[in-house]
Every structure is written in C-alpha cells, then in structure tokens.
Amino acid sequence: MKTKGALLRENNKPWEIEEIEIGDPQRSEIKIRMEAAGMCHSDHHLMTGGIPMAGFPILGGHEGAGVVEEVGEGVTDFEVGDHVVLSFIPSCGKCPSCKAGLANLCDFGAMLLQGEAVSDNTFRIHTASGEPVYPMTLLGTFSPYMVVHEASAVKIDKDIPFEVAALCGCGIPTGYGSSTRSGDVRPGEDVAIVGVGGVGTAALQGAVVSGARNVIAIDPVEWKREQAMKFGATHAFASVEEAAMSIAELTNGHMCHKVIVTVGEVHGKDVDTWMGITAKAGTCVLTGMGNMMESEVTLNLAMLTLLQKNLQGTIFGGANPKLDIPQLLSMYRMGKLNIEDMITRQYRLDQINEGYQDMLDGRNIRGVIRYTDEDR
After folding, report:
1. Which terminus has fewer CB within 10 Å in the chain: N or C?
2. What are the required cofactors (predicted)?
C-alpha cells in the first residue's frame, strides 16, 4: 500500500516527507495502523551519522503505538483490532539471550540496522521510485503504517492513550529500567540522573519508586531542572561540576551510590567526570548513546580499581519488552508512573523537523507525532 514516511537521504540534512510503499505482511508479520510516534534522540543520531544504518534512504522512528490491521501466516499472538506498542528491540523468546532472561539482547537485535525484514531478509518498504528503504530498528514509526515481525510488537489494553503507550516502546522502559534493573537502585540510596529529557525523567521516576533518598537531577536547561523537581527530584543542578560539592555535603562525602547517565549524546571525555560523583563500590550506568565510531574514553583506571566502582552499559534499561511494557502501563493506570506530563508537545508528521529542533533547544521532555487521516 502507498503511504507517507519521514526519510533521511543523507547525513545532517532535514527529514523529508515522501511517498513510500509498504509491503504486505509475510509469515510472522503484522500490519499496523500507527496512531502515535515518540521523537527520541536516537533518531537524531541517524541524522548526524552517530548511528550508521546500512544505507539510505532511512525511514526514522522506533517508538510508537497503533492498531493491528492485518496478520500474516503463522501469527497467533495478535489479531485484527489489537492495540500494540512497538518495541524497538524485538524479543523472539527462543534465542539463547531470551532464554537466559536477557530479552533486551535478543539475537534479532543483530539485524536492527540492516533494513531487511527478519522474516525473509527482504526489504519491506520502498520509495515511490522503487528504492529499498532502511527502517530504523526494523520499525520506522515515522510513517502512519508499518509491517513488522510479531517479535517487535507488544499487545496492550485498549484504554491506554496511544501517545502514552508510544513512549513505552523505548524511552520509558529504557529510563525506568536504567534505575530499577541495570542500576538496581535500593531504598535509601543516593542517585544522580545526568540529563533529564524523556529517558532521564523516566530514570528519575524509577529512582523515586525504588525508594532513593536523594535524587539529584543534573541538566543545563533550567526548565528541565524545574520539571525534574515536579517528577520527584530532591535537588537539581546545571552541571556535574556544580553538583559535586553539594552531593558531597548531602552524602557526608560518600557521593552517589548510583549515577544514571541519560544525556542526549555521550562523549568518552566525560566518563571520568560521571565516575567522579559515583561512590565507592557504586555504579555509573551509561544509558545515553554516543557516536558508534567513537572509542576514546577518559577514565582513571586506578580509581576504578581502588574504589571498586562499576561502569555499567545498558540497552533498553535491561527490559524484557513483553513483560515490562504492560507492567509499566499498569503502573501508569494506577497513578504510580507519570507519563502524560512527560509529553510536552504533539506534532503532525510534517512538523517533524520543528519537533526535533524543539528537542535540541531543550523545549521538550518528549515530543510525540500524533497521526491523523491527513497523514494517511
């Protein structure tokens, strides 16, 4: 079927809305009418080349929610009319990682940037002129329709607003899990959240729910620091350097048991700065993405060893998508997780460049594209 999509044709150029052709669902695939798509910083990394796809043009978007319109052969877990969240990492449930309880490291993840459907290794999306299109993480939520493998979808209750559900495809479980799973925040611990955009605000809420004593938000944007206090932060600072002395005073010199780094772009030169506010035997969790070509890191190895600190990477916050996404939405329903107030602005598909500029300018916690009939 013909529809629209936001494409990148080269690095550091704006998103372009073009006509695309979406193929029919094959075995183990479902076709989804998209209702909402979150505007995550990782898609901006596509534009800059920080996340290199296997080719151009690229269909962006890896965070979204919609309604199942058609199911392919062999699909048993979904039926037409189901509401779903798209998980940016598929979970097959059968590979060694999934069986070991590491669904966020599913073997299907090895194919996320190749553009070819995991069901038959063909391109499911093409431009109007017939060029193959590379969808972000095999999804491409910046289009009002998509065909995806069933491993990339999670069924949800139909009373959940689509714009809320969309954020649970990446930002919410990534941030929340960075605190609760990868960071393993315990009651009474002191926690710093470095960067309080969408993922950082979810991490902040995860630390609060886990019973952290002091939750210190660090972000250069004053408005974001103000918002962080509304979401449960106990203190807020513009930089790590500004925060360091206060953290020492708050913790009697012990510093933070857990430091969760959720900045929009990680640079290796900053790692030792974040480790500097991490306590002895504490853990610094790197959640934010850096350029995949960058390999230089500044780190005092002696202090890493002598103070027995931990530097922990995480993807998807260590989440199990099929389990955690419904659980997080049930917490939202019970008023224990504030997702609605994280949605700062909603945009049309043709406003995508405006939305990403707002993100870069620090005006959004999370922007959301809300699809209408005009987009279809």
Report:
1. N
2. Zn(2+)
